[in-house]
Amino acid sequence: MAGHITGKVFNIQRYAVHDGPGIRTIVFLKGCPMRCDWCENPESIEPRRQLAFYSPKCIGCGDCQPACPRGAIDLTRAERIDRVRCDNCGQCARVCPVAALKLIGEDLTVEDVLAQVLRDRKFYERSGGGVTISGGEPTLQYDFLYALLQACKDEGLHTVLETNGLVAWEKLEQLTPLVDIFYLDLKSIDPALHKQHTGVSNDLILSNARKLMAKKQAVVFRLPLIPGINTTTAQLELMADFLNEIKAKEVHLLPYHKLGENKLASIHSGLHPLPVPEMSRGEAEELQKLFHAPGRRVIVGGA
Ligand code: SF4
Ligand code: SF4
């Protein structure tokens, strides 16, 4: 019956090469308990499905307005959708001829997702790839995540779990037989800075990082580098010390970009554009040496 468990999925991306080894399919689950100021997938944060409005695509045909049963669409308003009235039914998105309206988040069973993932099995086998489960924070839909990972393992697929680590250790530990590599985000070691920019404490995350390493799991630590926020000398030294303490074997530096910012207006997320510049690959490469240690691989970007 596990195959019938339903999860809220907001994207399934095929032929990905930056979120684990080889060619992979990434399954993005909706919902996240953090509110990172630099979130690159703000449409993933809310656990429920959401209507997105992409104003640059809109041709002003007006077809959506009569399709709305709740009178939530006003063509004269820049933001277009009255978010108090809208119940995210998706009827407007069905009639929009140019996909300027789109429902984010679809209820899919484990069987549905697995069927899509298995389409590319031959690419996984040739490239050493597999499936990556991402979000949002996938552990928020724990039963679905567990069943999906189990189904992937039953098919002999290589699995990567991308997580922010904000999950009870008992639950994370139960996933370890089903996950080949954990990709664990570390935003900041400084408790106050972490709380300020993500909305949550980092106690549990750091504790889980220590426990995964003590349990000899394969863990890639992913560090978003946000100029002027977690890239000061003091912040970088704290991070390097922590990675040394837990004997991290692989570190990926992720220079800040503004792709997520462009999505903010479409979903009315409540997050605001971050007033910091993007970081170039070259700037991130200059910071790479701070994290070098014997036996550790440090790269810029994902792999
Ligand atoms: S999602 Fe439904 S309620 Fe919301 S604007 Fe579209 S049709 Fe109206
Ligand atoms: S149906 Fe689509 S293109 Fe037409 S007005 Fe509505 S959002 Fe714009």
Describe the structure.
The protein is an alpha/beta fold. It has two domains: 2-47 and 105-300, Alpha-Beta Barrel (TIM Barrel), CATH 3.20.20; 50-104, Alpha-Beta Plaits (2-Layer Sandwich). The protein is 30% helix and 20% strand. It contains eleven helices and eleven strands. The chain has helices at 64-67, 91-95, 110-118, 121-127, 142-154, 169-175, 191-198, 203-214, 233-245, 264-267, 281-288, and strands spanning 6-16, 24-29, 50-53, 101-104, 106-109, 130-134, 158-163, 181-185, 219-225, 250-255, 297-300. The strands form two sheets. A nine-stranded mixed beta sheet has the order 5-1-2-6-7-8-9-10-11. Helix 3 crosses helix 5 (142-154). The two termini are 34 Å apart. The model has no long low-confidence stretch (mean pLDDT 94). Bound molecules: iron/sulfur cluster (2 copies).
| Low-pLDDT ranges | none
Order of helices and strands: EEEHHEEHHEHEHEHHEHEHHE
* Strand residue content: 15-25%
Please state the second-level CATH architecture of the largest domain.
Answer: Alpha-Beta Barrel
Q: Mean pLDDT score, rounded?
A: 94
CATH homologous superfamily heading of the largest domain = Aldolase class I
Shape from CA axes?
globular
- CATH topology title of the largest domain: TIM Barrel
Q: What's the level 1 CATH class of the largest domain?
A: Alpha Beta
List the helices and strands and how they pair.
Layout: E1 6-16, E2 24-29, E3 50-53, H1 64-67, H2 91-95, E4 101-104, E5 106-109, H3 110-118, H4 121-127, E6 130-134, H5 142-154, E7 158-163, H6 169-175, E8 181-185, H7 191-198, H8 203-214, E9 219-225, H9 233-245, E10 250-255, H10 264-267, H11 281-288, E11 297-300
One iron/sulfur cluster (SF4) binds at residues 58-64, 96, 98, 100-101.
